[in-house]
């Protein structure tokens, strides 16, 4: 005899109450959800995506797991929503810099500053995201993964375009293909995941960005013969 299907989570009592509360968006609800997100970020950072459970998040908050489901449907929602929102902002910022006025060195400095600021202000969620293998996720997260890969590509193309602008206008020295230079810069900023912890660092994310920008631009400065 076949077992009855479990009702979709969105049609259960808790799912309906959560949907209603999210739609109402009261200050108290948003504040508690933000607290849960911050706690989850700490657990994601320590245990990684696969090792994180809602129970572990509940332990950090000193509450029971069941009470969290009024605010979130699971760890996928916590991780995916936060990272997607921040990534979309980063892409929009990079494309606005690319399409804005100014020379390439100025744009490149702003790109570095904005990306490092995002890492610092959204610590550690973006660092956790960077460690995940987006090509190896199971349904139902595959659509999310494909979307995030497309966002990553848009960001990379914005940086490449700024560097190519500098090569074309002569404000940056063409040390190699724009694509390689762009990936090198993105990787340099991203490597801060290995050593930058905002509350323990002697330097702010702004200090780090300024150092990186000065170093990169000095290396790409046109040579006068």
Notes on the protein architecture:
With 225 residues, the chain is mostly helical. It is built from 10 helices and no strands. The N and C termini lie far apart (85 Å).
List the helices and strands in order: HHHHHHHHHH
Query: On the 0-100 scale, what is the average pLDDT?
Result: 86
User: How many beta-strand runs?
Assistant: 0
Number of H/I helices: 10
- This entry's quaternary arrangement is single chain
Shape: elongated
Uncertain segments? 1-11
Helix content: 55-70%
Q: Termini distance?
A: 85 Å
Beta-strand percentage range: under 5%
Gyration radius from CA atoms, angstroms: 21 Å
Task: List key phrases describing it.
225 residues, mainly alpha, 10 helices, 69% helix, elongated
Give a quick summary of the entry.
This protein is an all-alpha fold. It is 69% helix and 0% strand.
How would you summarize the topology of this molecule?
Layout: H1 13-24, H2 27-51, H3 54-61, H4 65-68, H5 75-99, H6 104-121, H7 125-131, H8 142-169, H9 178-190, H10 205-220
Helix pairs in contact: 2-3, 2-5, 2-7, 5-6, 5-8, 6-8, 6-9, 6-10, 8-9
């Amino acid at each position: 005899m076949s077992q009855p299907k479990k009702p979709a989570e969105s049609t259960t009592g808790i799912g309906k109450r959560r949907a209603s509360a999210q739609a109402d968006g009261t200050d108290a609800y948003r504040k508690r959800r933000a607290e849960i997100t911050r706690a989850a970020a700490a657990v994601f950072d320590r245990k990684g995506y696969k090792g994180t459970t809602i129970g572990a998040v509940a332990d950090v908050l000193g509450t029971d797991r069941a009470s969290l489901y009024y605010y979130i449907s699971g760890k996928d929602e916590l991780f995916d929503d936060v990272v997607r929102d921040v990534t979309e902002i980063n892409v929009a910022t990079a494309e606005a810099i690319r399409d804005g006025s100014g020379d390439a060195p100025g744009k490149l400095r702003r790109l570095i500053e904005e990306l490092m600021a995002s890492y610092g202000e959204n610590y550690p969620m973006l660092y956790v995201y960077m460690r995940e293998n987006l090509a190896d996720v199971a349904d139902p997260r595959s659509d999310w993964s494909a979307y995030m890969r497309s966002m990553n590509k848009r960001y990379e193309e914005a940086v490449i375009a700024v560097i190519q602008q500098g090569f074309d206008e002569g404000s940056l020295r063409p040390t190699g293909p724009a694509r390689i230079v762009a990936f090198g810069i993105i990787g340099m900023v991203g490597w801060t995941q290995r050593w930058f912890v905002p509350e323990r660092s002697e330097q702010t994310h702004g200090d780090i960005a300024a150092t990186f920008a000065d170093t990169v631009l000095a290396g790409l400065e046109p040579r006068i013969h």
